[in-house]
Fold each of these.
Amino acid sequence: MRDLVLKNVVIPDTEDLSPVNVTVAEGIVTSITPWCEAANPDGINCDGAWLLPGAIDMHVHFREPGATHKEDIRSGSGAALRAGITTVVDMPNNTPPIISAKAFLEKVGCVQASGLCDVLLYMALTSDNIGEIRKVSRHPTFAGVKVFLGATTGSMLCNIETVARAAAALDCLFVFHAESEDVLREAARAFGPGRSARDHLALRPVQAAVAAVRQIASIYRPGMRFHVCHVSTVSELEIIEAAGGITCEAAPHHLAFSDTMTATAGDFAKMNPPLRTEGDRAALFQALIDGRIDCLATDHAPHLPNEKTSPWPLAPSGVPGVDTLVPWTLKLVQDGILGVDDAVRLLSTGPARILGLKDRGRVEAGLRADLIVWHPESSWRVSNADIRSKCGWSLFDGMTLAGLPVHVIRKGELVY
């Protein structure tokens, strides 16, 4: 692989904001030196743009195997890479579900054949597959175990007693879809018929999330690696913080939109957990600003427009997100809401730490050259026509976000 030199870039989450030259060889950042215009005439002059670590999205659903008309590993990883995400972790609620070593290794084959960015994989926990998980738990593509405490797309329900046994038996990361199935069922019984998109919040209430997080905290012990997916309320955060040692993510859609969006977007705004009230959204957004959320993750869950316009409740839950994660976050930096160091923590160093990926997540000599070059003055008016995910739409359609990266480097290779 030919050496790559990025000239006249600024690494903004460091104390010294002077422009530098960054040299990459064999997929690794080998040196960071003061910018010299005359040096490396064949290098790429980045004109003072910012150099950031590639984003890591630890929560995507690329739909392969089983639903590749919505997305597949190639289309999803390609959309992620163009938008500055160089590593993703794909969820196991496929058809068939990833609950055996055989199914896991078959999916690894799909990743190796089609992945354009790094694609790691979770296995799902069931009542009797701890041994199957153990067989592949040291595989380099294995990222951890997904636990579904509430029914969602591709239901693989698991009770808390099974989780406790698995956590004692397996030394790995456990990531939780935290909604209590008992609370969800009671909400459905109480609500009765005549439901629509606007009722999704009542059918999946805050109490379901809070009850599930309490269960998770009740079995957590120091040294366990527990992570709560798509936190949507501060009430969940408070339990997580009190437990100490449990990490969590939030999704941009829960931070940017409230349940009032269903009045105009209908089931395009339907996801699990649902969009919350404006009060809950605002409180969660303040928690993001205050540094209480460990990382951002998209819960990228694409469905085609004709599926989302099906009559309720047939319209599936889930929204796409990989195209917009980095531009949405960097828009908060442009607006002075987050510092660039916050953005780097939320997009890169935070998920790298949670996943145990010590070779990436920072711009640093000796680490993998997963990098994005981005102009801090750039902007992008989002259009569904620009969405590279196979689903072809976004909740952010029509909104102005930060611009897409000028260049994306993965394992030292200039891919954009």
Amino acid sequence: MERLKRFLAPMFLEQHTWIKPAMSPPCRLAVVVPIYDEPLEGLNKLLKSLAVQEQVFKTEFEVVAIVNNSHRQALEKSKEYLQNQLTIKFLKKCEKRFPHLALRIIDKSSSDCAYRENNVSLIRQRAGAEVVMRFLKSDKGLKGIIFFTDADCRFSKNIIREAIDSFNQYNLDGLAGALEFEMESSTIHNYALRKAIELFLGNNQTLKPYAPMISFQDYSKKQKAILSTGQNIMVTVEKFIQVGGVPIVASASDIELGKRIFELKARVMLNRKFIVYTLARPSLRTGLSSFGRQVAEILRSIKQYQQKKSQSIKIQHRQLAEIFYSLVMDASLRGDLDVDFLKAAMKETEFEKVDFETKELEKVCFAINRLKSDPGLPTLELCEQEILKTLFAYFPKQDITDQVAPLIASDFLV
């Protein structure tokens, strides 16, 4: 009970932004969609795919759209803020356009509602906390399901029915579906990029021949966490509260959330009978470990190979990168992180370069060590900036030339 009180306490300071309509008694699942400077056509695809769900009543699920930007962006009326204000108007129209969809809107964009910082983990946590509170006021309680996804996704017509039935039939704590990538029409190297992304993510959620349609998280092997991508995480209210909700970090909060649920040895399943379609678009505005940044890096490597500026196509080695983060963060908490330890961690995790200037590494160590005494978002963002500026280009890589290079020719035949 104490954990629950701490979890929900910040919500009671924001009563003016609570969702007004009560949750429908039959509601079992809430889709949480964080929105920041998104094109309206993408949001329309997302909502349309949820409005045409099959074999499910409108009252069985709701969509919680949370539109956000920083308080400073609101005061300055930045282009992101203006786009978000258009989005709020668009969503209000969609409440009438899609009468079979229980659409709820949380405004964290307007100047009297926006947070000081703009951070997707904070926004996911804010929406998740409200969904928790709404479920706890209903008879679904701890069995309510929170489905975290992204604003550039759309879904197969059976996702809601399959998800609810899976949680009921298998008494699940967490669930993910198959993940399929869609490319923007302007993106070149579609086939090559799609394959590279599958290799980066470990290819465990994509649809492939002979893969079992249903598989459970196996804790006896060194299997990756099934819940690992922000477009495709479903979790019960009970487990969401147990892990403290979404970790408030500068980036990769989805990976960290999945990791914490994994550490509980929760009952988690991958169900390939339903599909989350996500837009693989490059973006350098996103965080250190974000999907958009990784797509941008993968596309850059493919282009350099195609232009004969490089002899190989590489992706970040995700497992080694996660080990590096764990090593340095644990050392920082112990008070052991210094330049020598940082170099040793980079060498152990096979960084492409280790011989940096001492002053450069001292800045990285200083930024990471500050998190111990000041874990706020500004410090997290400073830490991320130092790692991006100094280390990111040299993170451990995996050579995927043999698997991806033959597909570059296919792209030009389309």
Amino acid sequence: MNNSKINISKRLNECLSTQIFDLLIKCGEFTERNSASLFLVGGCLRDILLNKRPKDIDLTLVNGDSNLVQNLSEYLGGKIIFKSQFFTYKLKVNNNIIDITEARKEVYSSPGSLPKITSKCSIDDDLYRRDFTINSMALSLNPASLGNIIDPFNGINDINNKNIRIIHDNSFSDDPTRILRAIRYSIRLNFNIDNQTLSKINEFKSNINSITGFRIKNELIKILREDSRSKILLYLDTLKILDIIQPNINLNTKINEIFDNFQFKDEYIDDLILIGILTYNLNIQNIIYFAEKLYLDSIFIKTLRDTNEIKQLLQNVKLDKLKNSSIYKQLYKYKYEAIIINRYFSNENVCQKIDLYLNKLKDTIPPLNGKEIIALGAKPGPIIKEIMDYLLHEKLDGNIKNKDQAKIKATQILNK
């Protein structure tokens, strides 16, 4: 194995906040005092080598166990907020999240299956189970070797040459989600996928159907959260991978334009919207197939169904010609995200009416409540809701300005 003695402690200082840097130093000191070793690994180290601030802090523990992790969290004044069957832990220290994984060996019983842990291991063996050379390096946090990089697969060289390269030929057979990650990383980092790796993508891409829809969904959402989502999807389309995930997705100019201009803010809401945009041109049968294949939850399914219904509605109804109450009647039963999705595909006049609905009409309440209508002489029953709906629609159209006018209208209905 090639252990690179590049020391980047200075770059750690530059790419990490002072709080995180000090926290990592404490982690390394504690583990060394307890006869264990701790390493900064994966995409976190990759980003630091690229002189970027990492989004996540990923650590690997060698010669340690859950008791050591628990003691470490207490020493740091934090707590373990999550741990899994794969010997992974999520620590929260103040407002900082640190992910720690015990070094381990894994085997895959079949293509696309989740790995089974066979034993704990050295850092070199742990790095072998990872996806790409650029993510298969480790930086020591122990005081005696702080900043030294272990690079068994020449990941630094691939970073310098801007290459995405798998570690071994069975990588995509073991875990086909790595195919989707290879495309995502290549676009995000502006790296090339090396020829051998690209050949293996084409060889094993059909194995994507062997993994669960839940895992495909997670990878697809990660792609849609990227700023360069349209480029990633177009690359997947070029490699005929998008058809494996869902046939008939049409990445036309309009969809790519929407994706290019989309500003991602809220994870769950924007996930709904981006999935709806991606599947906008599918018919309802393909939407249902897509939703079932990816194990989408009921909120996703409702959003996609509503999106399709609104699309059909807007093809048959001129929303920009309707009065306010009619706009309300057409849209009130649909999810907000589904309306937003259709807004992206609408002309300016329709967009104005959609904005009017979302910003004003949607939250308008009837001028009288049920008790007030009963006080006018109405008997409890369906008539109450009928009057409230009528008054609401009159208010939306500007025919009712205040409660007195609403009471007059309600009384007229009751006296008929």
Amino acid sequence: MKSLASLPLLALLALTSCATTDTAIKTTENAKPAAKHDHQAAKKGICADAKAPPLSQCAETVTAAFDGKGVLWTAWTNNDFIYVQSSPDKGVTFSAPVKVNAVAEAVAAKGESRPKIKLDNHGNVYLSWVLTLDKKRDTYVRFSRSTDGGQHFSEPVTVNDNLEIIRHRFDSMAIGKNGEIFIAWLDARETEAAKKAGQEFKGLSVYYAWSDDGGKHFHPNKSVADHACECCRIDTAIASDNTPVIAWRHIFDGRIRDHALVKFKDWNTPGELQRLSRENWEIDACPHHGPGLSIADSGAYHAVWFSNSTTQKGLFYAHSTDAGHSFSEPVNFGNAGASHPHVLALGGQVAVTWQEFDGKNNNVQVMKSADAGKTWSKPEVMAQTAEMIDEPFLVGDGQAIYLSWHAPQQGYQLKRL
């Protein structure tokens, strides 16, 4: 296994049941766990004013995406409402916030569970998110769209057609080349059915729904796989043949929590489950770390993930040139205190970002590859703060890759890499 880490990292969140030069390769060694500076800061200034207008700086999370014309769009939550803004100048100025849901609802907007925003080739804006139903964190997957350039949004609809008060969570959305809308999530309907029958069922199931009419209607929900890790985000992407691909943390053999991937044969037919990672992490708890996935125009898959197995610890990157049937030798990166990686490919350029706590500050780190993931630059600190930060992400406008990140009460930032 390749390593870019001087020290491998360990889990940073509590485990619960729910000048560019190529870096030398060296062996992974054990490391001690590191704490993470992620306590929620007390609201201050205008963010503490209940009568203040909605402001993105007061949100805990900001999610971003570019449209086909290079306009940046962001989605964020304030007081149980989702707002959308656009920026024609790469984040220098923004339009006035537009409210998505006219009626307040308990929108999940923290960490790996947050509103998603995507756009199609015609400028239609799509949002998906999770609605929290009760204190047990039972949830529904929700959806809304705008067909007038983000000026107005449709009344939100529930995507999961199972309306039991159970978990339907960690949604991920991808948009096909012909405007297809694909939403996948973790679903507890099989888990709850097994419980009622007195049977054991590990984890949740991966479900999906898709629309071929711009979100006016969704095809019935279908299952992709059972036994997904219940508290880790999933990720979706569209392959070069315009079919969906899903990656998630899977429970193999009832006890090993590594990662899996499914490429669809067509929009109605999931393919066979493929093993993405092979650290053989044996743990009966959820690490709260899901994978990241990006598919280049060449068809290459690029994936990142976290593991804390006995012999392989930390953040990892690998790529596949055969539609996920096999992956390159994983590259281990980051130091103790690193977490939540995200990857984006644009042509032969690939970038990875993650956050890393060094004992004093939260750091936003980036490493880059100019040869489709074969070699990597040294990690670079792009931002640093002693305050809590949102997880960093990568977005692309078709010409360049940008780092997208947010520090609550400090504001949103976009930086070209």
